[in-house]
Amino acid sequence: MLVLVTLTSRILAAEELDFFPTRCETCVLMSKLFDDYVMKNKRSEASMIEGMEKVCRDLAQYRLHKDKDGIDRFQKNESETMKNLKELRERGVKVELGMPDELWDVQSVEIAELKRLCETIVEQYEDAIETWYWKKGWDFEGGVCKERVLRGGDISCMAERVENEL
Questions:
Q1: How far apart are CA 141 and CA 71, in angstroms?
Q2: Which residues cross the membrane (predicted)?
Q3: Is the Cβ–Cβ distance between 149 and 18 less than 8 Å?
Q4: pLDDT tens for each residue of 104-135
């Protein structure tokens, strides 16, 4: 029995741009990673520099979940869709995604943009990140993201995140 699953590639349409990360989403994700990093490492100049580099590298390992909305689109784990497609392929089902199999796990343009935005934020707000790093109890999301990176801009993803955590 041969079942053929085909997902065709399309030219990037305007609605697909919704999958690209915003500065708000990028900063909130950075906040979580920075907080985790600081909790696991002793504060030092070298550790701070490594943390700034590591956070953006870690974001590059995230996966895009097009079946989810908002900041939940970006997660460390593989999407259920990709897991299911890989399972089908392992069972002998011919699965066509319009690209070679070896490209299935290549970083998406949305995740590359997430990493690029992270690197831009680190570069542009290095002083604010350093201040946050050395001040115990200063909230990265509030002090760096809301007050510096997103000042006067869209902070809707922060409210969305709070709603999702309830």
A1: 14
A2: none
A3: no
A4: 777 789 999 999 999 999 999 999 999 999 98
Alpha-carbon gap, residue 86 to 102, rounded angstroms: 12
* Whole-number Å distance between alpha carbons of 153 and 150: 5
Alpha carbon distance 109, 106 (integer Å): 9
- Assess contact for 99 and 59: CB atoms under 8 A: no
The candidate with the shortest Cα–Cα distance to 33, out of 69, 15, 58, 66, is 58
Residues 37, 21, 68, 12: what is their CA dihedral angle, to the nearest 10 degrees? Answer: -140
Q: Write the DSSP assignment of 104-161 as a string of letters.
A: TTSPPHHHHHHHHHHHHHHHHTHHHHHHHHHSTT--IIIIIIIIIITTTS--HHHHHH
Q: What is the pTM of this model?
A: 0.78
Q: Which residues contact 67 (CB under 8 A, 6 or more apart)?
A: 79, 80, 81
Q: What are phi and psi of 159, to 5 degrees?
A: -65, -40
